[in-house]
User: What shape does this take?
Amino acid sequence: MLSIPTPRLKALDDRLGNPSLLCQRALAESTLFRASELLSLIWRDIDFRRRVIAVRAAYAKNGESRSIPMNDVLTTTLQAVKMKASTEGPVFRTPQGGPYRNFRTAFERAVQQAGLEDFTFHDLRHTFASRLVMAGVDLPTVKELLGHKGIAMTVWQQSPHNFPHRARTSHR
Assistant: This one.
């Protein structure tokens, strides 16, 4: 599965519970960040004035830094998290206050409780990328936001075999 409908994301959010995990889910869907990129975020990476979040090159899969614009929901969500957290260090902390090293178990448990099948944290990236393409954003822009080195991976992820419902309706 590469795209999940909004009502099913709501069901997932209802099962996540922990505000930090909810923010991670929202950030993953709104920024196209990989899990490792999310876990590496520190407050200095977030510029509320310019409304951008930076991925440092050391944590990007392709080794190149990039900046992602923040929408209103993301800005509000991150500001709420920041008010409850230290303004230094990791953005995402466990309920005990330490940095998250991995959130796979908690996420997989929430997915199961929400009744979702064949859905991983990484699928949130694909969901948002798909929505961008369906909204008319050009593939080179989506490529840059995803942090892909080349356009081939972006094109492959948006191809009809990943969206059988689009392939059926586009031939009418």
